Amino acid sequence: MVRKDCPPNDATFSTLINSLCQNRLVEYATEVLGKMHKYGYKPDVVSYNTIISCLSEQGRADDALKLLNGMLCKPDTISFNAVFKGLCRAERWSDAAQLIGKMIKEDCPIIEMTFNILIDSLCQNGLVSDAIEVFEVMPKYRCTPDIVTYSSLINGFSEQGLDEVAFDLFRSMPCKADIFSYNAVMKGLCTAARWDGAGELIADMVRKECTPNEVTFNILINSLCQKGLVDRAIEVYEQIPKYGITPDIFTYNALINGFAEQGRFDDALKLLNTMCCEPDTISYNSVLKGLCRAER
């Protein structure tokens, strides 16, 4: 382009940086960013955000933070949120709190997504009480909890075995439930072995026109198999096509492992040989484990 007197422009650099980051070549993207001034261009916030997001996704929170602090343009909420995600994933809660303070100091709006990143990360790390505290201060920043916020909290409660709390929150939330919130409740009900409740939840999903998906049934089937209720899991498995869903590798692996754990090797082998998807290493290992236990 340069040789033919057609110099690159902002779009050229943005496209290149974006493509490099999509292919996880963030070091090259950073080099391109550093060379833009040579052609008379200053990196814009979009280019910075692309690289910062890539660094955070790769677990390089310090590099993302360093780039944020060295930006030649004013960072926006997306810039801060990208770094925030990296800090939360690394469980660096103190640094995350300092970053929020920096956002406030620089008059950068804190939005629902900012809170959702923190709440989801806290819940994934079992810190549901802390997540609730964050949830309760959202109105102070003129942020309204959305379905993403509620789904994270419901999932957090379910993971902690607090199925009643999860269900109460689900029923009381002011926004319309989606597949993620339903599946989070399903997890709690199954953890508590409330099979009738799980069945009623699926019926409620159908009534509310929120069709169950593979994850919904896999949660139920896997939980039943873990509790030794493989025949009930098979009944659920046989109902899946009724909802326009095809069993996936996770469905089959849960059932095969369930059969193997009960010493039902013929059933496990039969299912392995009739799967409608390609078996993976877990599928074979589940059968192999059962056969070895039986000294076959």
From TrEMBL:
InterPro entries registered for this protein in UniProt: PPR_P_subfamily, PPR_rpt, TPR-like_helical_dom_sf
PPR repeat segments: 9-43, 44-74, 76-110, 111-145, 146-176, 178-212, 213-247, 248-278
Keywords: Repeat, Transit peptide
Keyword Transit peptide: yes
Gene3D superfamilies: Tetratricopeptide repeat domain (1.25.40.10)
UniProt cross-references to Pfam families, sorted A to Z: PPR, PPR_1, PPR_2
Superkingdom of origin: Eukaryota
NCBIfam families in alphabetical order: PPR
Family, as annotated: Belongs to the PPR family. P subfamily.
UniProt-recorded name of the protein: Pentatricopeptide repeat-containing protein
Organism: Panicum miliaceum (Proso millet)
